[in-house]
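2024-03-11 09:14:02 INFO worker-7 job=invfold-0412 stage=load source=structure_tokens
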């Protein structure tokens, strides 16, 4: 209620140029994208706005926006998934995930999903939308998923995959820029697709944020 009162006072008053803090959540997988050029562009365009950034899992950030503890969030959701009511959202790009393995790996297993049965995986911890999608796909195909290593950092995941600790599931853009890419290869598995949409979302009705968040949408679209 106090937050709503402050917004009404700001909208009705003459303090449009007053400093303001805007709290934005960023999905773990998108920190490289959102914490570089887009943030710099926002700071140049709105020098009196302070950006307080927090990273987290996409669904947790979505709920924090709904609850009002964040003004906006940049998240990843499975393609086609509907967003809850009460949110304004702009799709600013797509994410493509790929399965990776050591370049010199010898495949003795069957192809397709069946060839993944019992294979070890190097993945993000629980809470990751991509890991959940992988689990659902393999479960429906009655394929066992064994998590060998859990860690947040994609470059560490790729290093462990290169050493033969398991298969990885990473954004294609991360693999393309990795110093380890020469030691890895994409494993193409029929029926294993991970289309994700990148959303910039905020609660409906906060007109005061529109200029800043509109600039964020544009900057993210350009970056992607």
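2024-03-11 09:14:09 INFO worker-7 stage=emit residues=224
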């Amino acid at each position: 209620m106090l937050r709503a009162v402050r917004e009404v006072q700001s909208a009705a008053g003459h303090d449009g140029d007053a400093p303001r803090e805007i709290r934005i959540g960023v999905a773990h997988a998108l920190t490289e994208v959102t914490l570089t050029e887009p943030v710099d562009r926002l700071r140049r365009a709105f020098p009196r706005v302070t950006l307080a950034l927090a990273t987290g899992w996409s669904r947790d950030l979505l709920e924090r926006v709904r609850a009002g503890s964040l003004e906006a969030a940049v998240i990843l959701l499975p393609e086609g998934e509907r967003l809850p009511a009460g949110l304004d959202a702009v799709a600013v790009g797509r994410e493509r995930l790929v399965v990776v393995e050591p370049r010199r790996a010898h495949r003795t297993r069957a192809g397709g999903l069946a060839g993944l049965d019992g294979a070890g995986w190097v993945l993000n911890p629980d809470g990751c939308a991509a890991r959940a999608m992988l689990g659902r796909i393999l479960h429906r195909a009655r394929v066992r998923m064994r998590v060998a290593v859990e860690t947040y950092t994609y470059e560490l995941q790729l290093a462990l995959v290169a050493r033969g600790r398991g298969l990885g599931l990473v954004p294609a853009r991360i693999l393309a820029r990795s110093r380890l890419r020469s030691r890895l290869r994409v494993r193409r598995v029929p029926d294993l697709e991970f289309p994700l949409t990148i959303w910039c979302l905020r609660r409906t009705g906060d007109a005061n944020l529109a200029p800043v968040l509109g600039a964020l949408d544009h900057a993210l679209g350009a970056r992607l």
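2024-03-11 09:14:09 INFO worker-7 stage=report msg="Confidence is low (pLDDT under 50) at residues 11-16."
2024-03-11 09:14:10 INFO worker-7 job finished
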